[in-house]
UniProtKB/TrEMBL annotation:
GO terms for molecular function: ligase activity. It catalyses: (6S)-5-formyl-5,6,7,8-tetrahydrofolate + ATP = (6R)-5,10-methenyltetrahydrofolate + ADP + phosphate. Signal peptide: none annotated. This is 5-formyltetrahydrofolate cyclo-ligase. Its EC number is 6.3.3.2. Belongs to the 5-formyltetrahydrofolate cyclo-ligase family. Its cofactor is Mg(2+). The keyword Cytoplasm does not apply.
Amino acid sequence: MSNNRAQIRHDIRKARNNLSKNQQELAAESLKVNFIQHLKSINPAKKSHIALYLSNDGELDTSLLINELWNTDQAIYLPIIHPFNGANLLFQRYEKNSPMRANRYGILEPKLNCSQICPLPELDYVLMPLVAFDKFGNRLGMGGGFYDRTLARLYEQHWQQPQLIGLAHACQQVDELPIESWDVPLKTIITPDKTYCW
């Protein structure tokens, strides 16, 4: 595997986009089971505030998990690109009837409603997409840096909440990623096959 971040992104995106529809469906079901088990092991009775994402570009499908969390009365949030600082993310409440719009990347996000924004420290979990991860918990994103910039200040303050969890297919694991000073590492990554904790 290359040490070049752009090449790793290319190779891993190609691998996950080559997964069959059946493989993606099985992975989505396994993700749902694995995260619900993880959630119950930590806070079995608590209603949690959970930020997720809508899958894109072969990412591990979150739709079954979102529906399961709605059914168990958890509060779900989606990232939206900050309207005034387009380099950062906000997290807005996401419900079945939330009005949606496509952002500049063509990804659906809730239409901005300031009354439904959740401050980052009030989230219990942020479930993050990634392109690749390694055995040390390092995460390689798409290259836009949205999550890293959004989480940087909290990371510097050694915060405990929210818990950051990466979601990925097993084929997205590499031995070691070339990391940069701004990369925010993860303590948990969930794949369809395994939950990794550091």
